[in-house]
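Progress report, Aim 2. The chain analyzed during this reporting quarter is listed below.
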Amino acid sequence: SPSIFTILKSELSYVKGFLMQNFGPDAGKEALLYLRDLLNKDVEVSQVCTQVRSYMAYEARVQLLHYLTGIARVDGAFTVSELSVLKQIAFALGISSNETESLFAMFDNGLDAAYKVLEITREATDDQVKKAYRKLAVKHHPDKVSHLGPDVQKAAEERFKKLSEAYDAIRKERNMN
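Predicted structure tokens for the chain:
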């Protein structure tokens, strides 16, 4: 199956449009240069991401990871190398491993994924489940990215929906009200 890099190369014009539209021409251009370096692979992924980290807001970085994850999942499951590259990117972008796992889990179904989305384990009490949901609902609220482009808002709404679905699945399984 094609690697995330191959797909990014073939989707470059789309990626370019996406970045310009959603992060504004300046940040978009910066991100594009970063992607180009990444695709040439002469540059260490983590170095590039560390640069990105300095000029992109946290929400935008989460969005970028979400977007790259979506691209990697286009052909089904992650390959091991895609997963390790995405984890490297996430780490260098300053996104916590819990949040990264949560984001990856949003592309999966089932209760295990639901717990990961909420960044908790099955051992969590009902109270902890509620707390985790509330915390993440505030953190991922679409209003937080209202100043960014429409695609970013749409993806934030998607993440918010996944969060609610995960919470509902866990509540249903536990017969929580």
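The mean pLDDT is 80. The chain has two domains: 1-95, 96-177. These observations will guide the mutagenesis work planned for the next reporting period.
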